[in-house]
Amino acid sequence: MKIDNSSLTLDKDKRIATPMAARSAGNRMKNSFLLMGTAMLAACATSPNAIERLASDRDALFATAPDAPAEWAARGVTGVAAQGNWLSQFNDPVMDSLVAEALRANPTLESRAASLRASAALSRSARGQRWPSLSASATFGGTSTGVLLPGGGDDRINSGVYGLGLESSWEFDLWGRISNGIAQADADYAATAADLAASELSIAAQTASAWISLNEALAQERIAVLTYEARQRVVDLTEPRVRAGIYGPLELRTARSALAQAEAAIAARRQFSTEATRRLEVLLGRYPSAELTAPALIPELPPMDVIGNPALLLSRRPDIAALEARVVGAGLRAEAARLALLPSLSLTGSVGTNQTDLSEALDPSLIAARLIGSLVQPIFTGGRLDAQRLATIAQAEVAVANYASAALDAWREVENALTADILIAHQEDAQGRALEEARFAEEIAERQYSSGTVNIFNLIDAQTRRLTAESQLVTARADRARNRINYHLALGGGVPVMELASEDDLFDTDAAESGRR
What is the pTM of this model? Predict the structure, then answer.
């Protein structure tokens, strides 16, 4: 699979013009005007053939990924592009509100939005290089000189210095050097905007997953409490039978040991629940006070709908778009390093006055003007420019390789999620049947223990099987819900995140204070 980027394929027909000969002309007049043309060389000598080779030797770079099949291997089918809000399948308004809150207040997104504003400013700065620069100056001062008078004695001669001036400089976009810099800035902006979109999607998925994990932790804590209550029932059944001489100390000690272990498990589960709460609160931009509550419910999800195909995935994922933009930027930087070997042409001009009297400094007839054109060709830099060009080419190759690696990882994530949904669904179904059988077994064991036909170990084992099956069912449902979230994260998009601000809005004062619009 090849994603062609025409901005990276460089024209080989350009050639360097013959350096302009130095010329100067001037006439001394009351209103003087100086026009100078200079050709400045960085060192000794060079070969015209070498210069021509540098002008035409361009490197073509492409964002490429391995060939992909037309359908997902895990399901053997291809689906349509994702549409709508995938959060709706969880049917959880609280989850929706938490995701919206995280997208408004998460500090990571604040940082990404600030980076986008900085990138937009750099893009505008690059465009400013197309235009001439203009600056104004005003000078004033004075001199005082001591002199000896012919008849003896001394005196001082005081004079003022006054000047007004305008200076302007302009670099011609020779060889497209400035246009290349603008394209670099635009590529960086595109990459930063894609980074923000990827971060929004990631934060939305992390928040939804953290909400599932919090409910799972609370459900496991509830099971730990049920375990404690079950162990307490065993103690309550055992103690009177020990007093009656039906059972001995072994049964009582065993029942009390199981009760203490269940008490310890409650403390451990509460620690997990507290930590899960704080993780979610940090994602929401809140202080981690562990005050957030949840119903301890895990959603039962419908079968997964297969969405998209491997080729379509690369156009949906914002992180892939960011890497593709970085390939573009790296190629443009390699081109900038090549253009640095070629001549640059600039024009500098100034007008102004420099007089000893303030009124003369303001006299338009005394204005002097100067215009200088400069053509500069690097000749010898100790191999610095060549090395820089080779370095930028290698860095561009790194960007291309990173793109291909990320594409493979993206496909792997989707394929894993598709496979995992099938397998976890089987686990959930099997655990549901295991729980049902374990409940019946526990009821039978309690009746038989009460009648004295089984020992305490049979009862504790039956209770443990039931509680373990219930805990594993909660884990399977939570894993399936998290896998469903990871599936949509791997697909890219689908969450109604906040719209990116326009470039003008990125510099709004309110936007700067809030971080995002």
Answer: 0.77
Burial of 14 (0-12, 13-18, 19+ CB in 10 A): middle
Residues 6+ apart with CB under 8 A from 456: 234, 238, 247, 251, 254, 255, 449
Q: What are the pLDDT digits (tens) for 111-156?
A: 999 999 999 999 999 999 999 999 998 888 877 777 777 776 677 7
List the one residue out of 181, 178, 123, 126 whose CA is nearest residue 344. Answer: 178
Q: Which residues are bridge partners to 134 per DSSP?
A: 168
CA distance 283 to 495: 17
Q: Which percentage of the chain shows pLDDT scores above 90?
A: 52
508 contacts 325 by C-beta, under 8 angstroms: no
Q: How confident is the model at residue 495 (pLDDT cuts 50, 70, 90)?
A: low
For residue 3, name the pLDDT band (cuts at 50, 70, 90): very low
Average pLDDT, the chain: 80
| Rounded Cα–Cα distance for residues 39 and 343 (Å) | 10
R_g over Cα of the chain: 38
Q: Which residues of 124-156 are buried (b: 16+ CB within 10 A; e: fewer)?
A: eebeebeeeeeeeeeeeeeeeeeeeeeeeeeee
pLDDT tens by residue, 247-299: 889 989 999 999 999 999 999 999 999 999 999 999 999 999 999 999 999 98
Q: How many Å apart are CA 269 and CA 385, to the nearest integer?
A: 62
pLDDT tens digits, one per residue of 295-325: 999 988 888 877 778 878 888 889 999 999 9
- CA 272 to chain centroid, in Å, comes to 30
Nearest Cα neighbor of 192 from 118, 98, 300, 106 is 118
Which pLDDT band holds residue 82 (cuts at 50, 70, 90)?
low
C-beta of residue 161 within 8 angstroms of C-beta of residue 124: no
H or E segment to which residue 401 belongs: helix 384-451
Give the count of beta carbons closer than 10 Å to the beta carbon of residue 40: 12
The residue among 32, 36, 3, 43 whose CA lies nearest residue 20 is 36
Give the pair of three-digit tokens for residue 29: 């007049």
What's the rounded Cα separation, in Å, for the pair 176 and 421? 52
Q: Are 123 and 179 in contact (CB under 8 A)?
A: no
Q: What is the 3-state secondary structure (H, E, C) of 11-72?
A: CCCCCCCCCCCCEEEEECCCCCEEEEEEEEECCCCCCHHHHHHHHHCCCCCCEECCCCCCCE
User: How many Å apart are CA 478 and CA 214, to the nearest integer?
Assistant: 10
Beta carbons within 8 Å of 412's beta carbon, 6+ residues apart: none
Residue range 13-40: average pLDDT? Answer: 31
Around 177, how many Cα atoms within 13 Å sit in the side-chain half-sphere? 17
